[in-house]
Amino acid sequence: MTAGPPPAGEPSNEPRERGSLSFPAGDEPELRAVVGAEGIAPRVLVLGATGYVGGRLVPRLLTGGYRVRVLTRSPERVAAAPWAGDAEIVAGDAADAGALRDAMADADIVVYLLHSMAAGRDFAERDRSIAASTAAAAARAGVRRIVYLGGLHPDGVRLSPHLESRREVGEVLLRSPVPAVVLQAGVIIGSGSASFEMVRHLTEVLPYMPAPRWVRNRIQPIAIRDVLYYLLAAVRLPGDADRVLDIGGPDVLRYGQMMNGYAVEAGLAQRGIASLPVFTPRLASHWVGLVTPVPRAIARPLVESLQHDCVVRDRAVDACIPPPAGGLTPYRRAVRLALGRIELDAIETSWVDARFERAPSDPMPSDPDWAGRTVFTDARTRVSAAAPADVWRVVSEIGGATGWYSASVLWALRGILDRLAGGVGMQRGRRSRTRLGVGDAVDVWRVERIVPERLLRLRAEMRVPGEAWLEFRVAPEGSGSRYSQRAVFFPRGLAGRLYWLAMLPFHGLIFSGMVHRIVAAAERG
């Protein structure tokens, strides 16, 4: 089976259209906050501000004149966002009723963007519990409205566990005394979205793709900019709207058409796609996990959501929220805009920066605290004639497309082994080629701490029998600088000790080469 012709759209033999930060910006007249009689703008509490959608919604709410508060387990991550100084940050977990109560105080509207993608077998119960606590706390606090972004789904069929959980959360919120607007969206297309990255890498890597039967199913993708438009408009809705609203883009496509539509915009040949009945969601998620940067734990709920036709059942949303002035974004234009942002290194948020793989943990213990613990280190230092700023620039661009300045084959092999073990692997890359912040993913690492031009500390998210960090420090030294690099490993049991011993020969190649090449790159300017 072939996927058929790509979806209709504008010709693509033109310079790639580049994404605009100004649509929607949030300050359009139809999206701006409505100031009350007392002259005070509504206060919006955002749950899920560090996620893909939440990280884009918050700055637009601020631009629209809202007072914004975010509840987060990772205040250090939020503090690294460019909008952090304009929002109120409350540290806490939405699963904690006390934290929810404090965050709800004097809030007018709650935007609920929490989803458990890889939270273990009890994720559905956790989702229901948090939704119920949110609804109860909102009612006690006198919140005027809850806005929830759920998943588009058909009626009368058995849904996947994750899609069923989203449906249940919507029902819990609708049963609340507080009016709720439940927006149900399908596949979201935008730079950095997991769905877009899955389409992108499947298309770019595979000239011919054996695929599950779901490539024949009809789906209605929606551009991230249109999702933000609907969220902003739902926050502003007058009255007591309390209902479910399906949202989707103007194109209804098959998954194979989405892949070939991407191929057209990326300048690739059309891909042959064969539908095979032997691919179960489990097998398909393994396949996607090997071919794309999206790990199996995230690929599976994405794949399962494609098991049925998922299209907008009606356009009731148009009566409540008129479409944007320029119309909804066609699929191929959404792809074009996403590719433009990637070219410009202007990806606002990315799925890789959400903490799917492990729960937040304490930072690396300081050296005095290591007494009494087994710890292995590999520390190297080199004095350089380059200025500290030049060394830091090289350090801050490490990973992703730049690589790790040494033993590329060994890094690639380590990433493959990690993917085979169910880890994130090296394909994850990084959101920006030149900018880093706390919480950002860098291949198999996560930025745990950063002090510009002085310190970068990465924590390993690969599958290892212990806890590992990689630390880079830059300091002035005479007319040049001193570059220091340290790998730290806390082994877990005998397996952890054997792992470190087995890796020692490779560390000599990897870490010594890294020191020399980072300094050399800085001295070359």
Rg measurement, Å: 24 Å
CATH topology of the largest domain: Rossmann fold
Strand content: 15-25%
The main β sheet shows up as: 7 strands, parallel
Number of strands: 19
Kindly report how far apart the N and C termini lie: 52 Å
Task: Summarize the helices and strands and which ones pair or pack.
Elements: E1 43-47, H1 54-63, E2 67-72, H2 75-79, E3 88-91, H3 97-104, E4 109-112, H4 123-141, E5 145-151, H5 161-174, E6 180-185, E7 188-189, H6 194-205, E8 208-211, E9 218-219, E10 222-223, H7 224-236, E11 243-247, E12 253-254, H8 255-265, E13 272-275, H9 281-291, H10 296-304, H11 317-320, H12 331-343, E14 376-384, H13 388-396, H14 408-420, E15 441-442, E16 445-451, E17 455-460, E18 466-477, E19 480-491, H15 493-524
Parallel strand pairs: 1-2, 1-4, 2-3, 4-5, 5-6, 6-11, 7-10, 8-13
Antiparallel strand pairs: 9-12, 14-19, 15-16, 16-17, 17-18, 18-19
Helix pairs in contact: 3-4, 4-5, 6-8, 8-12, 9-10, 13-15
